[in-house]
Amino acid sequence: MRAGWRTALRWTLRLALAGIYLFAAVPKILDPWSFARAIHNFRILPAAWIPELAVTLPALEAIAAVAVLTGLLYRGGALCLTLLSLAFAGGIGAAMARGLDIDCGCFGSLAHSSASLPHLALNIGSAAAGIILLAWNRRPPQRRRLPR
């Protein structure tokens, strides 16, 4: 019975994590300039990096989310989403610490959301989900037989 509970939780976490990132990636892919403005508002990265990041980051989010959903390159996708969640949490935390009242751009121009405690909690929760998925998917060490 315990294995069934664990499988159900694993699928719930996979669907939630991938769903959040797919929901976030699509509007940013469709409107990279709005996302570029949101990145710029954080005042963390050099201006020269922002256009490239506004185009590549949403694609990376979508690819990693599809990897987690399909199981193809699952561990890489889960690791990528975990690291992105931690990076986004850091950015939102930095904006909050500096008192910036900005649209975080998390879900593109379709949903105006501020860099706030709920978004920080969402990213920390996403990172925790990714860590749990990675921990449950560890491969046991393989024993190699020595040649005789």
Order of helices and strands: HHHHH
**How many separate domains make up the residues?**
1
Oligomerization state of this entry? single chain
User: What separation lies between the terminal Cα atoms?
Assistant: 43 Å
Strand content: under 5%
Figure out the total of helices: 5
The tally of beta strands, per DSSP, is: 0
Described by strand count, sense and barrel closure, the largest sheet is: none
Which structural class should the secondary elements be placed in?
mainly alpha
Mean pLDDT: 88
Describe the model.
This protein is an all-alpha fold and 148 residues long. The protein has one domain. The protein is built from 5 helices and no strands. Helix 1 (2-30) packs antiparallel against helix 3, helix 1 crosses helix 5 (117-136) and helix 4 (74-97) runs antiparallel to helix 5. It is elongated, with a radius of gyration of 18 Å. The relative contact order is 0.16.
Entry summary:
The protein is mainly alpha-helical. The protein contains five helices and no strands. Helix 1 packs across helix 5.
List the helices and strands and how they pair.
Blueprint lengths: L1 H29 L1 H10 L8 H21 L3 H24 L19 H20 L12
Helix pairs in contact: 1-2, 1-3, 1-5, 2-3, 3-4, 4-5
Key features of this structure:
mainly alpha, 148 residues, 5 helices
